[in-house]
């Protein structure tokens, strides 16, 4: 079951992203093969940011095809109360210095241990801006999800 939804659902999505540590990022290789990557991330509203090396498969896939999707959810055996988000979006490489500083601040707030990690000049920051999102809430009804366009 799907429905068009209100700004409150967008806020629930933003809060859900803010309060979870990992996502599963789907990219497509230049050969057209789908790949999924587990990633730590930070968010600003519905926009997510993550760091990765410039030589990783995910980075190379995004350079070739910026269309991505990801999920954030919880491991639960209670299938009648599943919650999570599924997001489709466009990825880009962050180069703006102010946005880089915002990313660093968000990382330090969410992952305080990151201050002890060495800097790597080969790392890049990926930004994903959503185009469509689904908020799963099986407590409403098994299989229920809200649909939101951005």
UniProtKB/TrEMBL annotation:
UniProt keyword list: Oxidoreductase
Gene3D superfamilies referenced in this protein's UniProt entry, alphabetically: Electron Transport, Fmn-binding Protein, Chain A (2.30.110.10)
Pyridoxamine 5'-phosphate oxidase N-terminal domain residues: 9-135
This protein's record includes keyword Iron: no
The keyword Oxidoreductase is assigned to this record: yes
GO cellular component terms, semicolon-separated: cytosol
Entry coiled-coil feature ranges: none
GO MF annotations, alphabetized: coenzyme F420 binding; oxidoreductase activity, acting on the CH-CH group of donors
Listed name of the protein: Putative heme iron utilization protein
Organism: Methanococcoides methylutens MM1
């Amino acid at each position: 079951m799907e429905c068009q939804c209100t700004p409150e659902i967008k806020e629930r999505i933003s809060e859900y992203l803010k309060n979870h540590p990992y996502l599963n990022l789907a990219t497509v290789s230049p050969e057209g093969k789908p790949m999924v990557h587990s990633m730590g991330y930070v968010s600003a509203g519905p926009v997510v940011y993550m760091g990765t090396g410039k030589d990783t498969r995910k980075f190379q896939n995004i350079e070739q095809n910026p269309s991505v999707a990801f999920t954030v959810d919880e491991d639960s055996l209670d299938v009648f109360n599943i919650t999570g988000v599924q997001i489709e979006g466009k990825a880009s490489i962050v180069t703006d210095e102010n946005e880089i500083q915002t990313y660093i601040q968000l990382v330090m707030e969410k992952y305080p241990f990151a201050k002890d990690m060495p800097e790597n000049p080969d790392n890049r920051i990926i930004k994903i801006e959503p185009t469509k999102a689904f908020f799963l809430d099986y407590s409403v009804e098994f299989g229920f999800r809200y649909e939101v366009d951005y």
